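Q: Is it fine to ask for two folds in a single conversation?
A: Yes, each is treated on its own. Send the first.
Q: Here.
A: Result:
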Amino acid sequence: MALNPASAFGSASAGDPYLPTSGNGGYGVLHYELDLDYRVATNRLNGTAVIRARATMPLERFSLDFAGLSVVKVTVDGERPKKLAETPRKLVITPEHALAEGQEFSVTVRYRGAPHPIRSSWGEVGWEELADGVIVAGQPCGAASWFPCNDHPSDKATYRITIACEAGYTVVSNGSLVARSSRSGRTAWTYEMLQPMASYLATVQIGRYRSREIAQDPVPQSIHFPQSLDREISIDFGRVPEMLALFESLFGAYPFDSYTVVVTHDELEIPLEAQGLAIFGRNHVDGVHGSDRLIAHELAHQWFGNSLTLARWRDIWLHEGFACYAEWLWSEASGGKTADENAVAHRARVALEPKDLVIGDPGPARMFDDRVYKRGALALHAVRRRLGDEAFFAGLRAYVAECRFGLVSTEDFVEIMQSSSGDDEVGSVIDRWVYAKSLPKL
């Protein structure tokens, strides 16, 4: 029976109003296999992406997010497509044979070019050259700057990433390093991320780094850094194992197979997290623990943001509010201000800001407004005050365990916290802090 074309075209959007041109419909990605050859000296990338996916509807046509690089060849299950169209942000593929709902299929894309960041409402995001290396910061829509993908966090997949570049550079990507080989002055590095990952969290970091093991328990922890910062690195990141142990006790087991820190030669405006990784600039290293708050924040994202990932961008407070609250928890555990003292101080500061933001739906322009972070943390502290420590942290651990490697919403958090604690008023607390503009009292 012939398919109805009107119902067999996968949408060129995930349907998220915060990023209406990102993501795609009609299929879900199962696995990405990326084979990249990169020339640091000339910023030239040759890549092959093999994308294994499953159709969620009858498909005569579907699209991938892809920007700024040239397509060399595309096949679907080994066959050239009937039609291929490239727009500034999309690769639109009409396979030779229509795909049935539930059918698994493989798309291979060979491509090349000079990768560069994508311009967005939040600045330039994606693949970016450093003075001597590369940083990839994909949040929220930069993954398409270096590989074809379904660039929305609601479509998580596993990854195998191989990157070859000039010898002398260290290459870091998500997951465990499973292979490394050198030939003719070039070294290829292969990483595997076996836990599902959102595309914006996929990353490549390249630089002339020294490497050091921080700890082996409960998972391998390592750091890559400029040699000139050797002494300061030892001091500033020496507490990572303690932070990880604290967060395991409060949130549950660390979710991934390893944790890696990269400190770039360049200064960075802000640190950033990727799945299994955190990246800092040299300006975040001072040898006197001046960035402990930031180090705790990025580590906490491994639970809140990476293992538990928002299904829609409006719920960004579930990432940033939780990571901000983890800063206060680390301060409390390490002899600094208690979480209560931090909450009182930050509520006073938030009270000076305009009361014009609903952090549960801040709008795309203000997704990363500081009030989303601080008021999100205050919401959690308000829930903690209501439930008490035992019920609050038991509820957090239940939330992390039930939603592990999955997608989350504010409704999920409220439902699990209420179920775990037996207190039906958690939703009312969240409503006041997350869905109202007025600022409640603690």
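Q: Second one now.
A: Result:
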Amino acid sequence: MSKLDNNPRSLAVTALTRVKNGAYSNLQLNQMIDQANMSQRDAGLMTTIVYGVIQHRLTIDYQLAPFIKNPKKVADWVMILLETAVYQMQYLERVPKRAIFDESIQIAKTRGHEGIRRFVTGVLHQMDRVGINDPADIDDPIKRQSLIYSVPEWLIKELNDQLGAEKTTSVLESINHPANQSIRVATDQITMTDAKSALEEEGYKVTDSQVSADGLVLSGKPANQAKLFHDGQVTIQDESAMLPAEAMHIKPNMMILDACSAPGGKTVQIAGQLSADDRGQVVALDIHEHKVRLVKQNAKRMHVDDRVVTQASDARKIQNVFEDQTFDEILVDAPCSGIGLVRRKPEIRYEKQLKDVQSLAKIQLDILEAVAQKVKINGIITYSTCTILNQENRDVVTAFLANHPEFESQRVETARDLKPDRATDYLEIYPDDYDSDGFFIAQFKRVR
């Protein structure tokens, strides 16, 4: 590899270009860190720049706009290179401006040609001379918030309407913080105490999750480098994502349906509470065959594949796949807009529109309608999403219960007794509540 190939700023431009073309930021970063021969410090800088540019893209592009006359004529990678420079200038106080300019200009020269080098040099020096616009000076409050927090205006409006101005501001301020690195301990295989000790011996700083009983928050190095990860005794999972399975009422001999299972994090969490000897089993569905394979791989890695049965099926079309009242419990971790994940997958905020949210709400309700008769009387359906919008959460719950008088809402209880004073049966977790992903969980008990 050439020197440039291992340059964290150049690699950040490559990663951001691929994300713009559809790659997931977290997967792309993991792949590039694994492939490049970089120090931990350089990998950290690349990661910071990639996430930072995505998180602040609307702000950065607003500040770049006055200095680029014909943006459509600028190649994507060149625009992204300029975005990385502005991000470093604005948000990385410890990085000297001269280093940012020199590196950016060198990347322009090496990856492009003399004309691109001159263009990048001219833009950076003009910005330095003239100064950049402050979005806090914008009069329109929605546009101002949109550009300060780099969140689309439609989402600002929805959050303001649903949560009020104060809570919306708190959520917006939280979503550009770095995501915690959290893992779930497979307590069917190792105790929390032993897991913590083993991780600390490897050099991790370990703290208990304030959200999930089986969760730990790690810092120091990537969690997938831990021996416990390779041994299948811990798995990488957000703290909030552990809650739906934690809130279920699982017994070792149950037959459980995970209706939307890929990539299998919740499937293996459920399976860890089942017993193959007692014929406990979780049936894991996903509409895509390649995603079903991911669930199988996850189950094997976590040593629960003897309790997991996978099937490529659309949960909306299972009327003739299973007999009515087959399952003791059902988890519908529904496909959703993912707005609760913006801290971990910052590009999500730019990919979704209000019409997408409305379409997803229909799919979510269709899935619940399809699985309703497959749960036994006195059995429970757990419904969860990783979004914070009412259309996909409260409104779906209201519609399902209105259509199904044979179900009653159940209060969602978690091991750490989160939000004990809430007035609702369902549990809403916002990104600013516990510095975790936003999540929603509701439960319905079939009474007849």
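Q: Anything structural to flag on that second result?
A: Two points. The two ends are 66 Å apart (CA to CA). The chain has a mean pLDDT of 95.
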